């Protein structure tokens, strides 16, 4: 996964330097989703791929006991910065490592993986799902964002600009993978690309047949109208760029 780690590292550094939003701002929409899908009695959370730490710190401020696993050192540094800035105590534990092989023995009420599932092969996804099952208490739940193949196949060749950051989407039809390429203006020779395996709910259920995780529910994500530059938060699954799958340990 080394090449994917390099993508996320540069994505974080470029975004921090050039994009016009505050990476220090806490977010609440995922807390609302967590409470809606898993109930308000949930307490102990594991987040995979914490990124800039906005969700983890927000969850800790809401009283959750949260552990976050992140592989990019600069992201880890920023999560520590947010933890100190917002005076978070022992509610937040930060682990730098690869969630495919991190030696974590704890079990949790919920495992969350927002906007990132699919970075490996089907076999690697299966390994991760087995890890998630090990980390869940009996009957506990996982919330995982899954990219849809139909949206990203239709979005291939779309280019988007964020300040000096340029991006272009592609789609590997044979591998059923969304391709997301980034580069800085006038420096396309330094392009970086992530590749995420897309799964329909039917595909994901087939993958889950080899685990003790049960597919309970899905909630469609939104869709971007690139012509009018508007985001539609509520669309049917057939139009959504991703969906959140709710899984439960049997």
Report on the architecture of this protein.
With 250 residues, this protein is an alpha/beta fold. The protein has one domain: Vaccinia Virus protein VP39 (Rossmann fold, 3-Layer(aba) Sandwich), CATH 3.40.50. It has helices at 2-18, 29-38, 54-61, 73-85, 122-135, 149-155, 201-208; strands at 44-48, 65-70, 92-96, 108-113, 136-147, 159-162, 165-172, 177-184, 192-197, 213-220, 223-225, 230-232, 242-249. The protein has a seven-stranded mixed β-sheet with strand order 3-2-1-4-5-13-10, sandwiched between helices. The model has no long low-confidence stretch (mean pLDDT 94).
Provide a brief overview of the structure.
With 250 residues, this protein is an alpha/beta fold. It has helices spanning 2-18, 29-38, 54-61, 73-85, 122-135, 149-155, 201-208, and strands at residues 44-48, 65-70, 92-96, 108-113, 136-147, 159-162, 165-172, 177-184, 192-197, 213-220, 223-225, 230-232, 242-249. It has seven helices and 13 strands.
């Amino acid at each position: 996964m080394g090449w994917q780690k390099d993508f996320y590292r540069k994505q974080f550094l470029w975004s921090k330097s050039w994009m016009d939003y505050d990476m220090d701002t806490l977010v609440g929409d995922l807390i609302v989703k967590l409470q809606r899908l898993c109930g308000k009695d949930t307490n102990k959370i594991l987040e995979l791929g914490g990124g800039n730490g906005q969700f983890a710190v927000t969850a800790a401020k809401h009283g959750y006991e949260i552990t976050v696993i992140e592989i990019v050192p600069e992201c880890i540094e920023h999560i520590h910065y947010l933890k100190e800035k917002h005076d978070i105590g022992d509610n937040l534990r930060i682990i730098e490592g690869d969630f495919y092989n991190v030696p974590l023995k704890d079990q949790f009420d919920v495992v969350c993986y927002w906007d990132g599932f699919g970075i490996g092969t089907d076999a690697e996804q299966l390994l991760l799902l087995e890890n998630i099952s090990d980390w869940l208490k009996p009957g506990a739940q996982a919330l995982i964002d899954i990219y849809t193949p139909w949206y990203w196949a239709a979005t291939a060749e779309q280019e988007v600009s964020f300040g000096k950051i340029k991006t272009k989407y592609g789609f590997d039809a044979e591998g059923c993978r969304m391709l997301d390429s980034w580069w800085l203006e006038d420096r396309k020779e330094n392009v970086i690309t992530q590749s995420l395996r897309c799964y329909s709910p039917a595909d994901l259920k087939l993958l889950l047949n080899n685990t003790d995780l049960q597919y309970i529910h899905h909630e469609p994500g939104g869709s971007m109208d690139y012509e009018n530059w508007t985001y539609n938060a509520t669309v049917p699954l057939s139009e959504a760029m991703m969906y959140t799958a709710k899984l439960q340990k049997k």
